[in-house]
Amino acid sequence: DALRDLIEERLEAAKYPAREIREAEREDGVEIIATLAAPSVEAKELDALVEGLSRLDAVAHATWAARAED
């Protein structure tokens, strides 16, 4: 999937490689969920990355959230 590849490329370029990328079917489309391999992140960097993704025609919504690993 081109969008999934683009997300992976942008994460790697920002030095936040994905540990896992999965897709979840939704009523209104597909949700792409990326779990980062990095133990810590810079919020401003991820904000900028997400802002760029949200401008893509194929993206209806983009966001990120910090979560403790299980």
Write up what this structure looks like.
With 70 residues, the chain is α+β, with helices and mostly antiparallel strands. It is 34% helix and 24% strand. The protein is built from two helices and two strands. It has helices at residues 2-13, 43-54; strands at residues 18-26, 29-36. The protein has a two-stranded antiparallel ribbon with strand order 1-2. A hairpin with a 2-residue loop joins β1 (18-26) and β2 (29-36). The radius of gyration is 12 Å and the shape is globular. The termini are far apart. 4% of the residues are buried.
Kindly report how far apart the N and C termini lie: 28 Å
Major sheet? 2 strands, antiparallel
Strand content: 15-25%
State Rg: 12 Å
The number of helical runs is 2
Shape: globular
Mean residue pLDDT:
91
Give the topology string: H per helix, E per strand: HEEH
What is the helix fraction of residues, given as a range?
25-40%
Structural class by sheet pairing and helices: alpha+beta
Q: How many strand segments? A: 2
Low-confidence stretches: none
**Spatial arrangement of strands, main beta sheet:** 1-2
List the main descriptive attributes of the protein structure presented here:
single chain, 70 residues, alpha+beta, two-stranded antiparallel sheet, 2 helices, 24% strand
Helices and strands, with pairings:
Blueprint: H1 2-13, E1 18-26, E2 29-36, H2 43-54
Antiparallel strand pairs: 1-2
